[in-house]
Amino acid sequence: MSTVFLTGATGMIGSNIAEQLAQQGHHVRALVREGSEAGALAQLGVEIVRGDITAADDVLQAAEGCEYAIHSAAILGGPVQTMEGSTAVNMLGSSHVYNAAAKVGIGRIVSLSTTTFFDQSTTLTEQSALDPAPLTDPYTQTKRAAYLDAMKRVEEGQDICIVISGGAYGPSPLPERTMLVPSFNARLLTAIEGTLTEYVNIPVPWVYAGDVAAASVAALTRGVSGERYLGFGRPEDVLSMVDFCNLACEIAGSAHRVVGITKEQLEDPDMQERVGVTLTALARRTYPEPWFRNDQTVERLDYQPNSLDEGLRRTIPWMRETKLLRA
User: For residues 213 and 216, what is the distance between their CA atoms, to the nearest angstrom?
Assistant: First the structure.
């Protein structure tokens, strides 16, 4: 089987990618920062190379001898963002991966991205245009720049395809890592325990983390350079965070419920600071119905995601087994 260079391996999606690749017999070489716990990955047979995505030499050393790459490392759009940090990881880190892949002869790169800079005024598909007026938060701006860099490289002959994740939740070989802000697992947990009481009311294409990983792994061999794939759940499972959390509470047998933050409440600067610039901007948008269609992803990658109900019924027992959830 192949040797696959993986970034972001300690993240929720990245750790699922590592697990699936190892289960399929691939050798996985993961770039992991100094101090990050990676024992569970090593137990899966993953080769841990210590280094930083922001250091070009570290990336090049880790990529040496690999045939494929999956790039999932990113700074996400949480309440606290800086342009400096997002640029270093999301833009320069991606550039380091693409440069290293070209130098060592990696044949295919699968790069994970986001929906936030695509036009969502109409139903989102794999062919949707870029948003002509994208959000200005650091996460969106730097992920957009990384995407444009990837597409320029595709035009120049490099083999890169893009997997766009929905709102990912679910089990991981590294349970504690799945709880880091802005984790959806953490919000699910706090909703069940009753400490999350309100949230911004925007539609989210929920997806079981293992399904995004499966799409990413499938894209290594089934994908086409330059194409985008929507690693979402089912179109009928698009729900607001409020409804997502309340469904989880119902399945978990919790009496707690989350209420929605209105657009009017988001006019308050204090509320904007609490929820962050990305969510505030997303909450002000108008969304189409259906929110997305991913027919190309389903056909090209033989993609068959779990339903939201099934995903939550797997996730909540796992949270109890790993002691993340004690209720």
Answer: 5
Distance separating the N- and C-terminal Cα atoms of the chain: 43
Structural domain span for residue 122: 3-169+206-235+290-305
CA gap 118, 255 in Å, rounded: 37
The domain spanning residue 13 has which CATH number?
3.40.50.720
Establish if 181 belongs to a structural domain: no
Domain-located, residue 177: no
* pTM of the predicted model as reported, rounded to 2 decimal places: 0.94
pLDDT digit string, tens, across residues 17-43: 999 999 999 999 999 999 999 999 999
The answer to whether residue 199 sits within a structural domain is: no
- C-alpha distances out from residue 223 to 93, 138, 146, 267, 306, Å: 23, 29, 19, 43, 21
> What is the DSSP secondary-structure string of 102-123?
HHHT--EEEEEE-STTB--SS-
Overall domain count for the chain:
1
- Which strand (E) or helix (H) includes residue 282? helix 277-283
